[in-house]
Amino acid sequence: MGGRAALAAMVLAMLAAAATAAADDPRYPDPAGYCDPASTHHDPRDTARDAPPVALPPGFTRRFERLVGVRTPVIEAGPRDSAEAIVFMHGNPGSSLDYAGLMAAVPRGARAVAFDFPGFGKAEKPYDFPYSLAGVPGQMSSVLRDLGIRRVHLVAHDIGGVVGLEWGAAHPRQLASVTALNSGALIGYTDHEFARSWRTPVQGEASMAAVTREGFVSTIQGREPRPLPREFLDRNYDDFDRGTRCAILRIYRLGDDVSQIGERQAARLRPHDVPALVLWGMRDSFLHPSVADRQRDAFPRAEIHRFADSGHWPFVTEEARSIALARDFFTRTISQRAGRPIRLSVRPRRLRARRTTRLRVQAVVGPAAQPLAGALVTLGKRRARTDSDGRATLQVRPRRTGRLSVRAAKDELAPGRAVVRVLRPARRAR
Asked: β-strands 350-365, 368-371: how paired?
């Protein structure tokens, strides 16, 4: 501890000496070179320890994959050939292992995926990675494409919701549902004191350089109404090396107003009425409780559950209740499983078609409807496959009638029933 304190004091002195110059010249936000890859003397000395292995729920495995050019751990369960999956996105400064408990909520047979963001957890931490919200839709699309996922049930905590919804706002038809854990469209967000420090050149580097394991643990525990498991915090600190600290500094200096980002995301998502579950610790010292109610600006029918005695990590401090609520939501949102053809019930409808008929197939779960992509629509001997918007065009013989049937594609999660709508009247045969 003595050597660590001396190092922190030295760094603070260096940064303080350069503060005036840095403030005057924005080209040099890091005059002491804290985030210079070569500055290994700034590396924290207390992140290494003999950590016990993390137990994952039955059926989950962990492997390493290269996503957007970064080697990262991927935790997954269920059929890898399913194009629809529950995707867990962690917060700051966490990792995919934060969800080791909540993953027990995944229904049997459904696909689930969690991965570490570049710069976090056990992912590679290139100092020159292009951290930018503007790049998120493309980066996320690349990750999902590499994993073979086309429709996402997003589970997000903290900044993971900002990132996930930035992708979702750009691809709303691929967003099947949202589970927000003290996260989501952060309308009304204001910076907490750590965020204000991280946004400030020199001060942010100094504050990061001064963090120790015991300081990290005591600071978080002091802000939580109920203590988090020590092993959970130790595991987070194990990954809190200089690469992660510099990634956080870059993310918080993107210059975007988080509340305005949330308003923009909500405006794009609201018309799609995506099913949403919100679990919110009401004694969160980083996010004001009023932000929970603003989730209905993005998801009009959001189910909001408030945990009166929890803070920023309700899915950890009230794990059993969170698992029960999430499992119920997943079961209702994903009512059938992937990996096999599923016959959907279609309300019998006799059509008199002339030359062409355009159809739209929607999968219905409760009052919600989502386009059913990749479904096989059959009318007599004619067949067509629906596109990403659930649309298909059938070529049929004039003045013939038939009964429609719909079969979900093998790689789609299909809800329990489908509604077929005729989009264009039949045209007269010439």
From this structure: antiparallel
User: Which of 257, 276, 268 shows the shortest CA–CA distance to 189?
Assistant: 257
Q: What is the pLDDT of residues 382-408, one digit of tens each?
A: 788 887 777 888 766 555 556 667 776
Nearest to 231 by CA among 61, 53, 91, 93: 53
Other Cβ atoms within 10 Å of 136 Cβ, number: 18
Cα dihedral sign, 238-42-201-207: positive
| DSSP string computed for 129-196 | ----GGGHHHHHHHHHHHHT--EEEEEEETHHHHHHHHHHHHSGGGEEEEEEES-SS-TT----HHHH
Domains and CATH numbers, the chain: 2-333 (3.40.50.1820), 343-424 (no CATH)
- Give pTM, 2 decimals: 0.76
Strand spans (E) along 196-275: none
DSSP class of residue 426? P
pLDDT tens-digit series, residues 115-143: 999 999 999 999 999 988 888 989 999 99
CA–CA dist 249, 39 (Å, integer): 16
